[in-house]
Amino acid sequence: MKAYLYLEDGSRFEGTAFGAIRESVSELVFNTGMTGYQEILTDPSYGAQTVVMTYPIIGSYGINKTDWESEKISLEGMVVREYCATPSHYMGEQNLDDYLKQHNVPGIYGVDTRMITKKIRNYGVMKCLLTYKEGTDHLEKLHDFRMPADLGQRFGTTKKVVHAGKGIRMGILDLGCKQGIINILKDEGCTIYQYPWNTSSQEILEDDLEGLLVSNGPGDPKDNDVVIYTLKDLTGKIPLRGICLGNQLLALALGADTYKMKFGHRGGNHPAIHLPSNRVIITSQNHGYAVEESSLPADAEVTWRNINDNTLEGFCHHRLDVEAVQFHPEEGPGPEEGRVILEEWIRILEEKKHAEIG
Ligand SMILES: NC(=O)CC[C@H](N)C(=O)O
Predict the structure, then answer these.
(1) What is the pTM for the complete model shown?
(2) Where is the Carbamoyl-phosphate synthase small subunit N-terminal domain (predicted)?
(3) Which structural domains are found in the chain, ordered by start?
(4) Cα–Cα dist 267/282, whole Å
């Protein structure tokens, strides 16, 4: 069956439908990962977005039981150059087409993904319509579409969940937390308190945590007024850590500003420099917003910067015990070099606890 992808700049791409047959309007972004489509599909931070995979063949290793970041597919559509319907991998359980159908997510293949990516790079992130009929009102549909403002409330846990462990008590303020983050905290032995987005600062403080991690999540960070208010209240009362959306929200809580990037960073090949040590690591990334470095309070320290475009990739505030990174130390998908950052956060909070006990 034919499918069409219409972009906000007026361009139209004809391809073949796969996955669910459902018209969808969303924001179009590209990901440069050569592998990792299962993690990308299930990463809640892609809520209300359609992803173009720049790697030309997608689906070749199928879908497995372990490489998921949440139980649902979060994105609105998938665009690929060539779809492989006959996957071959010892862990593969299902093909991508069936998986998309099962989760009611549409896809299109056989389109020039290189040209689409170049358009996004030149024009910036665009709205897109994935549909099955040619039409004259398509551009209107695109113009009428607005990214939902409640995305940060849609993908996280709806009730407090506790995962018992033998180590320190870590909270996660869950705005769509990737499973990879939870898995690392579990590996480190933490007892994890996973909180819904609207949990009050008082409720969090009552659990006597060693630290609170603000998770990744979809949408514009500035849409999360309630969370920013909560974080403002928690600042200085409990060690705060953040990943991606969490990095942006902690910066906003400190009075800094965020902005929408032209086309963002999505892929597993982003070099970031750790400024205090002058060391570079290759990071996994998925973000369309960034913290405006010059807006950070004077006593905050910029700790990480992206080498490709010099954007801020992490900061800390020693006195208030706030530390965050814009990239994904838990990878999922991508290089694992950043994992030590999360492990180090836990180790230092453990040390602090033992020092306090004496
Ligand atoms: N992965 C994330 O947490 C993404 C954060 C935010 N939604 C952005 O696009 O910048």
Answers:
(1) 0.97
(2) 1-131
(3) 2-144 (3.50.30.20), 151-357 (3.40.50.880)
(4) 10
